Request: fold
Amino acid sequence: MSSLQLQKLRIRIKSYEATLLTNSCNKIIEAVKASDAKVVGPIPLPTRVRRYCVLTSPHVNKDAREHFEIRTHKRIIDVYKPKDDTLENLRCLDLAAGVDVEIKNY
Reply:
């Protein structure tokens, strides 16, 4: 990677719980700032809400229903001019189990 310098990393984080998401964002930002790279974010993206309607008694009462929803919270963190230390710090991070992290380079 020494011959090809990355200009920007985009870190996209998803979680069903907002508290896990904010804690993971804080850990990532601390790890990136430790390597003296410029950080922009976390930028909140719209929360995706999936709602499901389930009949409680499928053969008798059409009016008896339960509603469930799943909320997916998302954030984006941009890292400008990352160094080798930045990538190493991101690899060594220990994040919570309910957090999905995608890293793309531009």
About this structure: The mean pLDDT is 86.
